[in-house]
Write a structure and sequence with these properties.
It is built from 14 helices and no strands. With about 300 residues, the chain is an all-alpha fold. The radius of gyration is 19 Å and the shape is globular. The N terminus is likely disordered.
Length: about 300
């Protein structure tokens, strides 16, 4: 029994590492492609890539009866907030830089716990837990500091990017809770394959109405390669591996691992776009991440 548990933990750890690393290219590539296409077109092309990658898995899962027809109904709920989350994620990077946006996005952990408490009675004792409240307050202080200490905080582009990023955090939290609940007993890859279908169709409609899809015909071959990498890595692989990790390890460790993303993305973004954060922003960024980590650990401790 012990060896089996160790095996499950090892596989979960591998999935977590793959998920975190796979998310890194996404915002950096989206920022790079802002010079080529609008975000509506980016969303369509990236999600189409992910959908094509997962279609064979879905077909195989259906043929082997690994999943049944209920998957189409169950995947509909998480697909709804995922559509708006994807639109907001890409559009934010047309206004602000990747590392700053990713740092703001960590507030989604707080929203996820708040939504869980609103929906599930067994989560509500957290409101009386001092460690959780301290972590939440610390994270909020860090978030406010990171935002207000941005050197061009009041600039129109910064304000729009910040609002969109915080809007993304709420929508992603809704998606996370819905996906964990609706797809609890469904294969992660097959479940996300259906979500990708439900998401791609509306993104296509939005792209043809509001975007300029024809711009993609003038993209260079290297830009196409980066876009495909983004779709495969940051959508298909990252999403499926993240929820595969949650099934094997629970939500705590994967949630904590995601907190490392801003630092990894800043490293890449600094090289490509010369993005930097001030020492004060770094301080409050660490406070934000530390507060979120304390809240997540308090939630897990209370459950035990």
């Amino acid at each position: 029994m012990d060896s089996q548990k160790a095996k499950i933990n090892i596989s979960g750890t591998v999935f977590v590492i793959i998920a975190v690393l796979s998310w890194v290219p996404g915002p950096v590539i989206i920022k790079y492609l802002t010079n080529y296409v609008d975000f509506w077109t980016q969303n369509l092309l990236r999600y189409t890539t992910a959908m094509i990658m997962f279609l064979p898995i879905l077909v195989f899962s259906i043929k082997t009866r690994k999943v049944d027809s209920s998957i189409w109904r169950k995947a509909l709920l998480p697909a709804i907030p995922n559509i708006s989350a994807q639109c907001l994620w890409a559009s934010a990077l047309y206004y602000i830089n990747p590392a700053f946006m990713t740092l703001l996005s960590q507030s989604q952990l707080l929203w996820t716990m708040a939504i869980s408490m609103a929906l599930f009675a067994d989560e509500r004792p957290l409101l009386g837990n001092r460690r959780f409240l301290f972590g939440t307050l610390t994270a909020i202080i860090g978030l406010v500091g990171v935002i207000t200490l941005k050197h061009d905080f009041t600039a129109r582009a910064s304000v729009i990017g910040i609002v969109i990023s915080l809007g993304w955090a709420i929508n992603w939290s809704l998606y996370s809770v819905a996906a964990k609940t609706a797809l609890k007993n469904i294969d992660s890859a097959a479940g996300f394959a259906v979500i990708s279908i439900y998401t791609t169709v509306p993104l296509a409609i939005l792209a043809f109405i509001f975007g300029h899809v024809g711009q993609c015909t003038s993209m260079s071959s290297s830009a196409w390669i980066y876009l495909i990498i983004s779709g495969i890595s940051s959508i298909a692989i990252s999403h499926s591996c993240y929820y595969a990790a949650i099934k094997r390890m629970g939500a705590t460790i994967p949630s904590l691992a995601v907190l490392a993303q801003p630092f990894l993305i800043l490293l890449v973004s600094h090289i490509l776009f010369n993005e930097t954060l001030s020492p004060a922003q770094w301080l409050f960024g660490i406070i934000l991440i530390a507060g979120a980590a304390i809240a997540v650990l308090a939630r897990e401790h209370l459950k035990k």
